[in-house]
Design a protein that fits this description.
Layout: H1 2-27, E1 67-73, H2 78-93, E2 99-105, H3 110-119, E3 125-128, H4 133-138, E4 146-150, E5 156-161, H5 169-184
Length: about 190
Amino acid sequence: MFGLRFMRYSISALPITMLAIASVLLSGCASDDGQSSLLDVGDLISEVQFSDFEGTAFPRSEFENRVVVLNFWASWCAPCRKEMPSLQRLANTLNKDKFKVIGVSVDDDANLATEFLLQHDISFTNLHDPHQTLAINRFGITAYPETMIISADGKIVRKILGEQAWDSPGMISLLKRLSDKASSQTGSFAFGKE
């Protein structure tokens, strides 16, 4: 009879024990600073290092004190190809001192991405993430295109999934409001400094 009671207790305590073990194991998945390595709305992107198609580090100064539209795309993605001209029109419309449009191609083959950009006269800055390391492991992107809108102080303020009309009056108004908000605040933003 004692054995049966012990067995009943052991079985009923099993879910609580498993939950405690899972909690300890999952807490080990956080980065050294105790925060998740995935960036989300409200997070600074100051530690992210981007590269161009030759593998050269992209200067972080290109992000400083500007509202950035950071678009992850691929040449094999039909919605990505479709929205690229509107991103180019947006880049042509916005004040380059206050805004920056940046594409990040996740194509394995840099030649496919650069060929697409040349064929469609896409001239805004484009970078390369061929192994999707930044896309998946830092920004948590699960589908393309996905775009981050980054405020002039370096924080992700919006994540937008799917094809957009980037040069629409509503989108331009949103971006300008973000820029106006940043310019009304004192001080300036520099990567690696808080």
